[in-house]
Amino acid sequence: MKRACVLGILLGVACDNTKAPDHTASGDNLESDADAAQDSGDDAIDDGVTWHKDVSPLLEQNCTGCHNPQGISFDLTSYPETALLAEALVGATESGSMPPWPPSRECRPLLHERTLSEADRQILRDWSARGTPEGDPATAPAPAESEFVPPDEDLTLTLPEPYTPIGATDDYRCFVVDPQLTDTARITGFQVHPDNSAIVHHVLVYTDTEGIAATLDERDEGPGYTCFGGPGFNETSVVGAWAPGSPGYRLPHNTAVSLEAGTALVLQVHYSPAGDPGGSDQSSVSFDLADADEDRQSAFFVPFVDTRLEIPPGAEAHEEGVTFTLDYGINLQFFGGGPHLHRLGSSISVHLRKPDQEEFDCIMEIPRWDFNYQEIYFLKDPVVIEDGDEVSLRCVYDNSDTNPYSTGDYVYWGDATNDEMCLIYALAGLGG
Ligand code: HEC
After folding, report:
1. Which residues contact 43 (CB under 8 A, 6 or more apart)?
2. DSSP three-state, residue 258
3. Which of the 8 DSSP states describes residue 79?
4. pTM for this one?
5. Which residue minimizes the CA distance to atom 14 of ligand 1?
6. Is 19 exposed, middle or buried (0-12, 13-18, 19+ CB in 10 A)?
7. Closest to 114 (Cα-Cα) out of 105, 101, 124, 102
8. Domains within the chain, CATH numbers bracketed
9. Residue 98 Cα, ligand 1 centroid: separation in angstroms?
10. CA-CA distances (angstroms) from residue 375 to 154, 194, 247, 273?
11. What is the pLDDT of residues 264-308, one digit of tens each?
């Protein structure tokens, strides 16, 4: 042990590192490693990647917003738990599946992009290859400054009562909550607090100004009513979207979305009870609201849709879409949007063409649609759509045998599990 400690100092790492599995397993090699490292200078030396100094800060920046004790699956804030998963971390970051970031990076820059650099991936590889050394807590860098400010949560709405999902597979349930607004409220941020994160897969919040959801709720036994892909009626817009682990958001570019007095909200929760069969849930959602005297640009979520879908059975890459020309004598600002397809969807994109342009420019694209990661993405710089510009929405579907969700039938627009959509809830404002 003493010898190992000397070697630890030689290698420039703390003594306990040498307790890490692959070091103790090959004590002799370690010595020759150290010699070799000294001979050939810094290049060959183990750069001393440790949990405290390198790995934990990296995970904190990119992963623990989702993988924490209250979050999903495993806890990447814990050294022992993460050390056991080191190879899985390397695999998931190498393949690009983690951290999840569905939008195309070739389109426009988005706010709060989740991304790992090649250097970050190398840290994880080295750490795994070196037997996951823990290192010295004293070497941990100061926490990085984050541009992310969590939402304030002025208004919190909780499911009226606990709900236990039906069956062992997917259950889509809509719950009506009434914020009892007697005045117009202006939403500036959104967050979801899953109560039972083992089973809550995603949450979308819709408006209901006509009391339709309450009627649907009455007709269905138990808390809420069954719904898929939407609240079950068309006179609605989405005011919040959340995928597992999302830290919530503030609306960008000093905008706010109004909720009229009397508006009810419909929380659509997708449950995947396989994670906790029999468990109940009573999640809540929170909104930030603007103060009365706060100067904010008024924005609205407007659905941009192609409802005339006809997706033939067997088609592997069936494309649908619509192009329209803005001709209302106004300009629109496009701040971002929440793309939405169901389970046959494979990609969705929005493009823009100015009258003097040959080609369309990409505004937002999800090149590989994943129903489980639905969020609202905000552009770093809003795009101005001027009167006379063409905007094009494109959706691609896989209705072939290789898609487990294909029923082998024609598929049309609709709310049901086996229907499809082609839709982006655009956050837009006037002018620009
Ligand atoms: C936005 C939330 C989110 C972030 C950020 C995130 N993960 Fe995950 N991660 C998930 C979810 C959700 C799953 C479960 C996937 C499933 O069940 O399909 C998962 C699964 C995993 C798995 C299991 C294997 C796999 O690929 O599904 C690993 C390993 C993993 N994450 C590592 C990481 C690492 C490392 C980071 C940071 C670099 C990270 N995750 C960041 C949400 C996230």
Report:
1. none
2. strand
3. H
4. 0.80
5. 73
6. middle
7. 101
8. 2-139 (no CATH), 155-295 (2.60.120.230), 299-430 (2.60.120.230)
9. 5
10. 21, 15, 11, 21
11. 999 999 898 776 777 899 999 999 999 989 999 999 988 899 999
